[in-house]
């Protein structure tokens, strides 16, 4: 029996193809019971790898059944046929994903970004409070409903965190995600704290929201990792971001996992809290911590000749004297997000693990 016939028996009229991988695909469908369109993720067990079937798929199904949050894509039903196909019926993100939204409309104004980022952060807090981690946060996995509210989706690499006898969360050794959103510890193949990994990815997402470009160039992973470990975050001069916004991004993109913000600290940050908007900015000191004081200035980093053709001029997040851009400098280097990052979001394939810095994951993605 084909997919359309299976869905018809369950009360769904199959629509168009939304995405397809080697052993999974997503279709739209109309639910005769719900009276609106849904998304249907169809997984073929006969084509899927053993590791996915034994580990990742059971985790995803268990977690989807647990989640109930206004900023997380709803799961309406999960069923399986005797032929080995799994059907996951989900809420449809009718306005597409966040990456396409930004590619089409450009960087978000801070007020719009604040609203959407608060929705996303609330969803992550909900998950983290349940000891659930996503581990593949990226713009492609954030969908928009009819009112352009954010909805977190794709829990293919999610898991429930384990705790040791003392109640502390254990480290994770499975490395998931796309390189451009991956934290330095993951790129290096170091056992990591999965909740802290999610926070780094959140920082990358907020940067993309307000800048319309990537914070790091992932075409050279070793160079990107070196810049990340130096805690260098450069912002496009043309965006005129507030000090509070830069501060929040800078503290989420903290390479030291013991100093990276936690989700509660993000939600209580002065930029996220509209009522605190009149308060003094938190200046970033050389150690990457913050202290109350006047808004810091930001010194631009001179782009190297190799990258000048595709990266915006950036200003490095350090409290030094601001220098004025040269005429037409911004126009010369300004490029919005235009390339969709490679992903196996439908497949969840996991290539072999690389643990040495000299053998880092390839630029497109880091699934291990």
From TrEMBL:
SUPFAM superfamilies per the UniProt record, alphabetical: Protein kinase-like (PK-like) (SSF56112)
Keywords: ATP-binding, Cytoplasm, Developmental protein, Differentiation, Kinase, Magnesium, Metal-binding, Nucleotide-binding, Phosphoprotein, Serine/threonine-protein kinase, Spermatogenesis, Transferase, Ubl conjugation
Residue numbers spanned by region Disordered: 277-368
EC number annotated for this UniProt entry: 2.7.11.1
Domain Protein kinase: 12-272
InterPro entries noted in UniProt: Kinase-like_dom_sf (IPR011009), Prot_kinase_dom (IPR000719), Protein_kinase_ATP_BS (IPR017441), Ser/Thr_kinase_AS (IPR008271)
Residue positions binding ATP: 41
Names of required cofactors: Mg(2+)
Reaction catalysis annotation: L-threonyl-[protein] + ATP = O-phospho-L-threonyl-[protein] + ADP + H(+); L-seryl-[protein] + ATP = O-phospho-L-seryl-[protein] + ADP + H(+)
GO CC annotation, single: cytoplasm
Biased amino acid composition, Basic and acidic residues: 302-317
Localization, UniProt: Cytoplasm
Gene Ontology molecular function: any one: ATP binding
One Pfam family recorded for the sequence: Pkinase
GO terms classed as biological process: cell differentiation; intracellular signal transduction; microtubule cytoskeleton organization; spermatogenesis
Family: Belongs to the protein kinase superfamily. CAMK Ser/Thr protein kinase family.
Name of protein: non-specific serine/threonine protein kinase
């Amino acid at each position: 029996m084909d997919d359309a016939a299976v869905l018809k028996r369950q009360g769904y009229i199959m629509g168009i193809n939304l995405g397809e991988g080697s052993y999974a695909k997503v279709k739209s469908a109309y639910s005769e019971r719900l009276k609106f369109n849904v998304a249907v993720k169809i997984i073929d067990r006969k084509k899927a790898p053993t590791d996915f079937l034994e580990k990742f798929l059971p985790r995803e199904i268990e977690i989807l059944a647990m989640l109930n949050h206004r900023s997380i894509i709803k799961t309406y039903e999960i069923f399986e046929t005797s032929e080995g196909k799994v059907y996951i019926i989900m809420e449809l993100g009718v306005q597409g994903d966040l990456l396409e939204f930004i590619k089409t409309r450009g960087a978000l104004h801070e007020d719009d970004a604040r609203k959407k980022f608060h929705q996303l952060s609330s969803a992550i807090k909900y998950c983290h409070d349940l000891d659930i981690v996503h581990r593949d946060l990226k713009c492609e996995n954030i969908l928009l409903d009819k009112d352009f509210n954010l909805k977190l989706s794709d829990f293919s690499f999610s898991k429930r965190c384990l705790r040791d006898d003392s109640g502390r969360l254990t480290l994770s050794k499975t490395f998931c995600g796309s390189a451009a959103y991956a934290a330095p510890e993951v790129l290096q193949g170091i056992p990591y704290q999965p909740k802290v990994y999610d926070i780094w990815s959140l920082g990358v997402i907020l940067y993309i929201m307000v800048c319309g470009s990537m914070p790091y160039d992932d075409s050279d992973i070793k160079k990107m990792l070196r810049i990340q470990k130096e805690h260098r975050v450069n912002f496009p001069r043309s965006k005129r971001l507030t000090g509070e916004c830069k501060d929040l991004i800078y503290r989420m993109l903290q390479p030291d996992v013991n100093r990276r913000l936690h989700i509660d600290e993000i939600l209580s940050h002065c930029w996220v809290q509209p009522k605190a908007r009149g308060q003094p900015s938190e200046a970033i000191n050389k150690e990457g911590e913050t202290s109350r004081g006047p808004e810091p200035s930001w010194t631009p980093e001179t782009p190297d000749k190799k990258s000048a053709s595709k990266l915006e001029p950036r200003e490095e997040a350090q409290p030094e004297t601001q220098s004025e851009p040269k005429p037409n400098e911004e126009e010369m280097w300004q490029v919005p997000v235009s390339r969709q990052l490679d992903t196996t979001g439908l497949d969840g394939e996991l290539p072999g693990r690389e643990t040495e810095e000299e053998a880092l994951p390839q630029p497109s993605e880091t699934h291990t």
